[in-house]
Amino acid sequence: MKIKHADIRSRRRSAPSSPQSTKSTKSTALRRRQFLQAAGVGGASLFLPSISRDSHAGPNDGPPCRLVVFFHEHGVYYDSWKMRLPNSPASDQLDFEFGLGNLSQAEFSPILAPLHAHRDKMIVLDGLAYLTAMSDPYGDGHAKGWMTAMTGNYARETYDEVKSHALTPSFDQVIKQIVRAEDPSLTDLASLEYGIRPWDGTFHQMHYGLDPQGSAIKVPHVVDPAAAFATLFPDTQGDPVAAARTDVLARAAAQYEQLMPRLSSEDQTKLELHRELIADLQNRVEALENLVCDEPILEPWNGGWEWTPEMYGYRLPAMLDLASAALSCRISRIVSFQTDVPPISMLGGAGDYHHDFAHQSAPGAGQDKVDVVTAQGAAHAGQVALMADKLAAIPEDGGTVMDNTIILWISELATGGHTHDQVPVVMIAGKNTPFATGRYLRFGQTTPRPVPQGQAWYPEGLVGQPYNPLLVSVIQAMGGEQNHFGRKSITGTFPGGDTVEIGLTGPMTRLYG
């Protein structure tokens, strides 16, 4: 059976005064009982396709900065990822850099080669370390990496349906609050959390927001393109029920105000979360009236639920198309992808990638292992390149959407052996962002190795430079003013036992040239 891919053609959506349906696979109305249940009034669990808003300029009447995060598992095979020129220093402890603009694709590493066309917008960051992961007492190597990569901090605990539960919010959700504070017209769709593989993703968790009491709370991600499409582009124009939704939500909010004083503190927290969701729904409904935006056409998927090359070939471009639409329509400012490993047959292997290849890919591993792990890294680089291609093809204010976008590609680990030193980081940044691009930055191994919390012994050797300042720079580029993210410092140990406090604050100055 031939599988149809997402069609990147678009249609101009009509103004609210000229209702029309642009999708044949969606119902044209949401009946009142369904809506009341969706709003939580009818006793069902909360669910309602979200409603996007009008395209408009940023707070300063210029294109807003966007952020796209690609997060993959199991790290890379470092020797297939890193790049060195003939005159590059041999010492691992020296900082250096070189330009990427004049390099041929053959001079790029096997993993980074798919990004060659975007080399003038690239910054490769080679030599960073997840210092907090090295001393985090909670979870295994994977879980510690997830926590540091996304929150810059330790975990809160070891198990809560995930191997580690965050102590503080992830940087994408912090940025979401920043951009919504700057632009009140943004709804809860300011940040989109996407995946590709059809699994529940609860073993590890990527996204964390804050509950009303200030504790980190898990934010789910969407893996089904049809569900993501319905959230961004619900078919509500001409629906008489839709016209009454705002009033229903307003009345529900008033009822919450009356009920709140009679509840226990625990129940008040739960109700406050629900009230915030209702308020977000109300904002979405009101925003629909001004929507004038192109939307992609999504062909249905009828190929089952097995993780096959056909499903990968359908879901990847579909989700990237939806992300491109959300960013270009200014519905969203942040989109993050939990990409997972492509089907193993696409990488030239067979079996379980995690245990049969990633764990077996230490330096000196057999070439069959190296080849598959290298193919995995190159596949993820191709995902990033495709996203950059799509954004660079969308015109915006005399340039393109890519000109006003930061794409950050990170992983939970440095390598498949659960290591956290020399983690692979790549940034693709548009010309209107503050970063000096077209460069390969090597960060020398000069940092005393962090002391594992609760352990009396200390490890030997030096490791890479702190990762946290990278997140500070990204947050500041998106409008934030904070000078730290996650932990502010950590204790490191020199060979011999002397300790030192390692600062994790401030932006990463080398990003600016």
From TrEMBL:
Protein origin, superkingdom: Bacteria
Which intervals of the chain are annotated as region Disordered?
Answer: 1-29
User: InterPro entries given for it?
Assistant: DUF1552, TAT_signal
Ranges of Low complexity composition bias in the record = 15-28
Q: What protein am I looking at?
A: Tat (Twin-arginine translocation) pathway signal sequence domain protein
Source organism of this protein record: Enhygromyxa salina
Its ancestry begins with: Bacteria, Pseudomonadati, Myxococcota, Polyangia, Nannocystales
